[in-house]
Structure formats: structure tokens, C-alpha cells
Design a protein that fits this description.
Double Stranded RNA Binding Domain; single chain; four-stranded mixed beta sheet; globular; about 25% helix; alpha+beta; about 180 residues
Length: about 180
């Protein structure tokens, strides 16, 4: 497990770094190696925030907690991550993903809002590439929930088509899938 700790607006502390690493070692029982963990510890006035992003084989999980004590924030965020992973592991026991399907590399771009309203060409202000592992609709919804996102682009395991699952305003989920031509 590879853990990177970043301190923001505070002095780096080996004690806090070791404490966070010790607390996050518990996630190993829920997910397969390799595991990449990013920990961000931030102090803003009296707010002590701990934010964790875990990337492992096929999943990404994010969580953040804030208290008035950094050790309590680390405890709270590690407990939150562990709950999410436990729930995720229980849900995926029902379905096994097809292992013979390949991951796809995709790229997303963010376009500057004011450039759309004007007549000139939109300006791409951010581009991000990531791999998409084939998964079922249910797995895509779980992944979207774990990432706290409103939509997720993924490769459908059964068809290898790129689909989009999204959260509707009524709290349910929607699915955008290409038409199947015969």
C-alpha cells in the first residue's frame, strides 16, 4: 500500500503521518492490492480537515471529515472510508465482473463557461485521462456513490459499449446507453 500525505497550512508532522498510515492500514482487508492512498491534512483557523482518496483495483473512494482536532478528523475519515468499503464489498459479492474484458482509456475535458455564451470557440480549461474498467450498471452506480459524483461514464461489461449513469433530481438513477444496431 502506497500512502502519500500532504500537509496544507500546517507544519509537517511525522506523528500525524504515522497515525494516519496506521489507521488506513485497516482498508487492506476490504480491497485488493495495489492500493494508492492520498491523505490531505489541512488546518484553516480552528477547522482541522482530513481528506482521503483511495484508488485500488477498479475502484476509487473519497471521504473527508472535519473537526477541531486533527487526530479526531483522521479517526472520523478512516471510519467513514472503512464503512464505505464494507458496504461496497457486501454489494459486489452478488456479482463477479467479467475479467476477460479490457479497460479503456478515456479523457474528459472541462470547458470554460463564458466561452460557450460568446460566439468564439470554447476554451478547454482542464483535461483528465483515466481508465474505465468494464462493469455492470449496478457496479457503476456503486462507484458513482463512492466517488460522491452526479454521473459516471463507464464501459458496460456485457456489451463493451460506453454508457453514462447519472443521478436524477428525484433521487433515482438514469442510464444513457447507445442504441444496439442489428
Amino acid at each position: 500500500m502506497q500512502i502519500t500525505t500532504t500537509f496544507r497550512h500546517m507544519e509537517p508532522s511525522e506523528a500525524l503521518k504515522s497515525y494516519a498510515e496506521e489507521k488506513l492500514e485497516r482498508v487492506k482487508k476490504y480491497i485488493d492490492e495495489p492500493i494508492v492512498v492520498q491523505v490531505f491534512l489541512t488546518v484553516e483557523k480552528i477547522r482541522h480537515m482530513a481528506e482521503v482518496t483511495i484508488t485500488a483495483k477498479g475502484i476509487t473512494i473519497k471521504a473527508a471529515e472535519e473537526t477541531n482536532d486533527m487526530y479526531a478528523s483522521i479517526d472520523a475519515v478512516s471510519d467513514k472510508i472503512e464503512r464505505q468499503l464494507r458496504r461496497f464489498k457486501e454489494r459486489i459479492k452478488a456479482h463477479k465482473p467479467a475479467s476477460d474484458l479490457r479497460e479503456r482509456q478515456v479523457q474528459k475535458s472541462i470547458v470554460e463557461a463564458h466561452s460557450i455564451e460568446e460566439t468564439r470557440e470554447p476554451v478547454v480549461i482542464k483535461t483528465k485521462s483515466f481508465s474505465m474498467k468494464p462493469m455492470s450498471v449496478e457496479e457503476a452506480v456503486m462507484q458513482m456513490e463512492l466517488l460522491h459524483k452526479d454521473f459516471l461514464v463507464y464501459t458496460e461489461a456485457s456489451t463493451e459499449n460506453i454508457n453514462v449513469v447519472y443521478r436524477r433530481k428525484d433521487g433515482n438513477y438514469g442510464l444513457i446507453a447507445p442504441e444496439q444496431h442489428q
